[in-house]
UniProtKB/TrEMBL annotation:
One of its GO terms (biological process) is glucose metabolic process. SUPFAM superfamilies: Galactose mutarotase-like (SSF74650). The lineage of its organism: Eukaryota, Fungi, Dikarya, Ascomycota, Pezizomycotina. Coiled coil: none annotated. It comes from Lasiosphaeria miniovina. Residues 1-19 form the signal peptide. It comes from the Eukaryota. The keyword Isomerase applies. It holds the Pfam family Aldose_epim. InterPro entries: Aldose_1/G6P_1-epimerase, Gal_mutarotase_sf_dom, Galactose_mutarotase-like, GH-type_carb-bd. Gene3D superfamilies: 2.70.98.10. GO terms for molecular function: aldose 1-epimerase activity; carbohydrate binding. This is Aldose epimerase-like protein.
Length: 383
């Protein structure tokens, strides 16, 4: 929409702070669109989700490298609800055995994931409509206020916001949160799924031919069959199933033919590939800690983050029922098949509230007078 682009550019120049009621609504397609040289991103209030991310491929064509739906009204209805490119909260990932202990008291949380708690429970933030509180040509801010106990025993109100901004082929993500009333578990992530071929590679829709490099991640958390960390921290031998550190040109699927790959992410053999946590250790300040790339499209994506590790999930539970977007793929009939994408989620150690031996508790509990901060960026370029 031409007029809204002009209006947004004017807003950015004026750098005015608007009241809620003055912020323009989304475009006719239901999305808020922001852009900067080399990059364009679109968002919806549901889950504060990214719906589309356009970057340039090796032929100079803009391609959409993240998963999502054409119809923005489908996100809340989607029975599969893969937490598409949204912000889960207030405590992401699993809480082991659906309980945690804080200041000497044990709290039961909702058992919504085979005996554990996933993404906090009923009022998880990826299922909520966030408020848009600021908008400019190259940035957007969403905010959420989460009432005490809105998910079982997540006590005390939490006020959080995420600002997405674009600069020169880079997507910046910055979150802050406060818990003014109570000490509470608080741990956030941005849960984006990538396929850097935009499903246009005629050779394969699968993610395994992408390369993946985590140069500061020799160690990872051992997990049980329910993807819950056992407490053990393991080191991946070069060339082994969970090695992405030993070389910069390892294929994501380099271990595809090794014994154990089919059940490497648990579910008694049913989860193929990856759904685990890699520690980022001894990375120089501002170093890229993850590089995902595809020779087919020529697109390279690099993550920088304040977080001490990342979850890698290789889409084993995508069952082929979800459609791809019309700007992706080779035909309209194409679906999101198993192992055709990867979610890369910078976050603190999963279930760290139940593992004091990891020394992460002070980062995962926030209370009055404190501010939780989370920052990451994805920079796109060519291989
Ligand atoms: C998240 O919240 C929604 C809405 O309350 C609920 O339907 C869904 O089951 C919750 N998800 C999980 C993983 O608990
Ligand atoms: C959005 O703002 C309104 C008005 O301040 C508030 O009532 C509502 O709870 C907010 N929504 C969220 C998700 O925080
Ligand atoms: C939290 O909500 C549950 C119902 O989901 C209720 O049983 C419990 O008493 C509440 N706890 C507090 C501290 O309000
Ligand atoms: C934009 O990014 C490209 C590629 O990383 C770099 O060569 C260029 O200097 C950057 N331009 C600005 C204005 O930062
Ligand atoms: C795995 O085996 C298939 C044939 O079964 C082969 O095409 C593929 O290149 C092998 N992949 C790796 C990473 O060794
Ligand atoms: C936690 O701190 C203790 C004491 O400093 C140290 O021995 C241990 O290695 C730390 N654990 C981790 C996972 O860093």
């Amino acid at each position: 929409m031409k007029c809204s682009a002009v209006f947004l550019a004017a807003l950015a120049r004026a750098a005015v702070v608007l009241g809620d009621s003055e912020i323009p609504g989304p475009g006719a397609d239901g999305r808020y669109t922001i852009s900067a040289p080399g990059i364009k991103a679109q968002f919806i209030p549901y889950g504060a989700s990214l719906t589309n991310l356009f970057v340039s491929d090796k032929n100079g064509k803009d391609i959409d490298v993240v998963l999502g739906y054409d119809d923005t009204t489908y996100y809340p209805k989607d029975p599969g609800h893969p937490v598409y490119n949204s912000i889960p909260g207030r405590y992401v990932n699993r809480i082991g055995h659906a309980q945690y202990t804080l200041d000497g008291k044990t709290y039961k949380t909702e058992d919504n994931d085979g005996g554990n708690t996933l993404h906090s429970g009923t009022n998880n933030w990826s299922f909520r409509f966030w408020n848009v509180t600021a908008l400019a040509a190259d940035s957007i801010t969403f905010a959420i206020s989460d009432a005490s106990n809105s998910s079982l025993n997540m006590l005390g109100r939490v006020d959080a916001s995420v600002t997405y901004s674009l600069t020169n082929s880079t997507w910046n993500i910055k979150m802050t949160a406060t818990a003014p009333d109570n000490r509470t578990p608080l741990m956030l992530t941005q849960h984006t799924y990538f396929n850097l071929d935009a499903y246009k590679n005629p050779a394969t829709p699968l993610i395994w031919d992408h390369t993946l490099s985590l140069p500061y991640s020799k160690r990872y958390l051992e997990a049980d069959q329910g993807a819950l960390p056992t407490g053990k921290i393991l080191t991946a031998a070069p060339g082994s199933l969970n090695d992405f550190a030993s070389a910069s040109n390892l294929k994501f699927g380099h271990a595809r033919n090794l014994t154990g790959f089919a059940g490497n992410c648990g579910a008694n053999g049913a989860c193929e590939g990856y759904n685990g946590y890699w520690l980022v250790e001894d990375a120089p300040k501002d170093a890229a800690v993850v590089t995902l790339a595809s020779a087919f499209s020529g697109v390279k994506a690099q993550l920088r983050t304040t977080q001490p590790g990342v979850v890698l999930y290789s889409c084993s539970w995508m069952d082929g029922s979800a459609p791809i977007k019309s700007d992706q793929g080779l035909s309209a009939a194409q679906k999101v098949v198993k192992s055709s994408c990867v979610a890369i989620e910078a976050q603190d150690y999963p279930d760290g509230i139940n593992h004091p031996e990891w020394n992460r508790t002070s980062y995962q509990i926030t209370g009055p007078g404190q501010t939780y901060n989370w920052e990451s960026s994805w920079t796109f370029g060519l291989v």
